[in-house]
Amino acid sequence: MDYRIVYHPKAEAELDKLYADIALVAGSLTAGNFVDGVITFIENLETFPERGSVREGRIPGLRIIGYRRSVSVAFVVHGRDVVILGVFHRGQDITQDLLEERL
Fold first, then answer.
1. Which of 11, 36, 53, 63 has its CA 20 to 30 A from that of 77?
2. CATH value of 4-100 in 3.30.2310.20, 3.40.50.300, 2.30.29.80, 3.90.1150.200
3. pLDDT digits (tens, 9 = 90+) for 44-74
4. How would you class 71 by CB atoms within 10 Å of its CB: exposed for 0-12, middle for 13-18, buried for 19 or more?
């Protein structure tokens, strides 16, 4: 049985910002292709979400996975939902405080 992917609004905003940042440097086609790749990568979590590094701390079950060494996706699995808490690029600091407000 597949899981359902749920994006936190801030994760959606981070995808939009990722697109805008890439488009400024490399154009809208390149930005669109890259962000589509990130989204496809995230959507593939619906079949096997329990992968990536588990981060012990205040957020139970927090996992971080990387996409092409330039994007990190933070998520938790709640029942049959995979909740995407954030999409971070280029070495952004992913802190428990930042993600806690998104639960």
1. 36
2. 3.30.2310.20
3. 999 999 998 898 888 999 999 999 999 999 9
4. buried
